[in-house]
Structure formats: structure tokens, C-alpha cells
Amino acid sequence: MVNQVQIVEWLYVFASVIEHHKEDLTELDAAIGDADHGINMDRGFKKVSSILPSIAGKDISSIFKNVSMTLISSIGGASGPLYGTWFLRASSATAGKQELTQEDMLKLLQSGLDGVIERGKTQLGDKTMVDVLSPAVVAFEQAVGQGMGTVEALQMAVAAAEQGLKATIPMLAKKGRASYLGDRSIGHQDPGGTSAYWMLRSLLEVLKGSNTIRNS
């Protein structure tokens, strides 16, 4: 089971990881975007960290809904609506829950992915965060089907997400600002996919009880 305390810790850790990698994300975005992904994400998740003490006692769905509204109102560009939608769908998938089973976790991950696809009108191969989130969901579902525990399944998901992230480098961008560059978008790692990878890896590290990710 994944409990409410772990969910709150995950959000704190992800915010810390984003702050640590803010310049890296901005550098990636400078190559194919507006050079503001790191700045925007850091601002949004600092806001999330600031509200967590006041919502930490709520059920998981309510926590996610508050995170969603905070991100939508504080992150500019495409990232706010996309991450806001991910957490809003996560909220719907976990309604009334104080802890999450493996099935709940799969539903959360799948719902978040579906929301991003619908909101961004994107698909696998477009060089977006979908190229990271989609293989992660597939890997998690397959691992659960093979009888793996939640942490093991999430390890498989994160490994698939990392492969998906690396696969964005040779892709031609078909969505967002990067798509305006045409062939010049080839050879650069997608910044949104990078932050999505850190989101999933942060969750894994919390469930493993590890604190190594914050400054990795």
C-alpha cells in the first residue's frame, strides 16, 4: 500500500529535485523551447511545497486536486496545464482514498497519462512527456501482472521511463514550441519528458525509503 504520508513526502521530494535540476531543465528548454521550463516548474512546485502543510491531513484525492489547482495557477506555458491535468486526473482516480493499492497506483498512472494525451493532443513519438509516461505505465502494468510488488513494479516503470526519455533525443518534435524548429529539434532531449522522469523517479525513491535522489 502507498499511504498518504508517502504521497506528501513524494511531492516534497519532487519539488526539491526540480529545484536542484532547475538549471538543467532550463538549459534543455533553451535548445528547443522558451528556456523557461526549469524556472516555471520550480516556481510551481515551490508553491506546492508551501501549501502541503495545510492539506497534508486530507485524503489523497484532495491533496492531488489542490496540487493540480496550484500548478495550473502558478506555472506558465504548456507545463502548467499538462502537469495540472495529470494531477487532476490522479485526483479523480484516487477519490476518497487514504492509501493506494497496486490497482489504484496503476489507475492513477494511467489516468494521468490519458489526461496529458487529451490535454496536449499528443501521442507517443511526438517528443513530449508522453514518450516518458506511456512506457512507464505499460511497464508498471506488466510488472503487476507478473506478480511484482509495488516498489519492484515502479522500478520497472522508472527504467522504462528513462529509456523513453533517451529515445526523445533523436526524435523530431511534433508538438509545442519545439515543433517550430523542424529538423533542428532532433538531437535534443525533451525538457518536459525530463521533468516527468524526475516525477516518477522521485516517487520510487520515496517508496524505497531513499533520500539519495534530492541531490543526485
TrEMBL record:
GO terms under cellular component: cytosol
Record-linked Gene3D superfamilies: 1.25.40.340
SMART domains: Dak2
GO BP of this protein: glycerol catabolic process
Family matches, as InterPro entries: DhaK_L_YcgS, DhaL_dom, DhaL_dom_sf, Dihydroxyacetone_Kinase
Keyword Transferase carried by entry: yes
Domain DhaL: 5-205
Kinase in keyword set: yes
Keyword tags: Kinase, Transferase
Molecular function in Gene Ontology: glycerone kinase activity; phosphoenolpyruvate-glycerone phosphotransferase activity
Cited SUPFAM superfamilies: DhaL-like
EC number(s) reported in the record: 2.7.1.121
Name assigned to this protein: Dihydroxyacetone kinase DhaL subunit
Taxon lineage: Bacteria, Bacillati, Cyanobacteriota, Cyanophyceae, Nostocales
